What we know:
Elements: E1 3-5, H1 6-11, H2 42-60, E2 106-108, E3 114-119, E4 125-129, E5 142-145, E6 153-156, E7 162-167, E8 173-176, E9 189-193, E10 197-205, E11 211-217, E12 222-226, E13 239-240, E14 251-254, E15 260-265, E16 271-275, E17 288-289, E18 299-302, E19 308-313, E20 319-326, E21 330-331, E22 335-336, E23 352-355, E24 361-366, E25 372-378, E26 384-385, E27 389-390, E28 395-403, E29 409-415, E30 420-427, E31 430-433
Parallel strand pairs: 1-9
Antiparallel strand pairs: 2-3, 3-4, 4-5, 6-7, 7-8, 8-9, 10-11, 11-12, 12-13, 14-15, 15-16, 16-17, 18-19, 19-20, 20-21, 20-22, 23-24, 24-25, 25-26, 25-27, 28-29, 29-30, 30-31
Amino acid sequence: MPLYSVNDLAGGNPGENRPTPRTLPEPDESRTMPIPRIGRRKAERRRLLLLGSVGALLVAAPIALIGFFDDQEPIAAPGSVSPPGSSVPAGGGVMNGYSKEPASRVVPDSGWRLTHVARSKAGTVVRTHHSGKIEDTTTGWVDLGGSAGGDPVALTDVQGRMAAFVVSTEGVLTYDPQIDPDAEQPGTWLELGGRDLVGTPAVAQDSLGRMFAFVRSADGTVWETHETTAGTGAWSGLQDTGVPPVQDDPVVHINAQDELTLFALGTDGVLRTRSQHQPGGDTWSPPRAIHGTVGTSPAVAIDFQDRLQLFALDPSGEVRQSTELGPYDRWTDWRGWESWRTGPALFAERPGVAMDAKGSLVVFARDAGGAVHESFQSGPGRTGWKEWKDRGGDVVELTAVARDFSKRLCVYGIGSDGSLTRIRQSGPAAGPWTSWATDLAGDLATG
């Protein structure tokens, strides 16, 4: 497939079929994400006190979650929102129905069929999807072309189009704005810039529906680019986010205040966060550290109390958890699960997490032998965790955890033979689990 830069399509000559050379500017204060003076407005403090008094009621009667985990029947394409140009306050705001789920390797398409993107051993981006909303069979792998130096992720934009993002083998961030299986016209791979980029990008919509992409370079710098206006295809230049050098891929997630939060694991093992100062805003908090050290970037989910929960491995392979304490990047120290662990306890890669149909978070982690283990919240207030359950498998890489249209959890991985494999619940928040699928095919790269 031809590869153009965004600027080619904005005013250049795409017919030349050549990528536009890109270089990153030297990081300086004018190119970093703006950091305003630190301070707290008195009105915000009063609002937080009021919300805190209401919060106790919400704990007793958990509110319904929004978006992909909504308890109501889906009536529109995942991620569909009000059209671009909806009225929002200057400098920020919230667009009704924007997608609160970040990009992943498994996302629902416009027909609510789970769609998996991956990197082939040939170095291209490939896609497969389930043949129906609740069907186990898949349609086979389609080569989307492009150049994949790392793993791709997908996200639905405000126009309902499924976009894919990947770092190319040349170290450039690229994206295809339309990979939906039902699209009448497939998209074209476009360059978003960069040099010496590595790993897997983190992408999410902000509350205005703009897609934000974060990616690291080989020297550990974390870069950011975003749509200047949602759904238009116009992107900002890459900017240094100003966090210390990282050792793992960045992670991004929306919080309960409709603000994007960036997570960056430093080479010192300290995870740091930066959040938008207001929904849809263009200024961000300075980097703030979560006390303690871990060895992987976190898996992130919003719990039934609308708090972000983080799950990572420490350098020994133990699962560690940190819980959001409120706005302004306040978190608990990292804590371990030793008190209720059984089984191997030590794991080999970043865990995965999702919310089940009953509102409990479920964590999955792979051991060095390829088996996947499951633990989920339990007890009063969901403050405890069940002992690990061995779900078996011959998995060399855990790729995604997702809920299908019928609210069953599905766990995906790449098997030792390079094919896609999957297990799922037999019903919403109910076992038994299926056996690992052996008919999903694929010749997929790992690592």
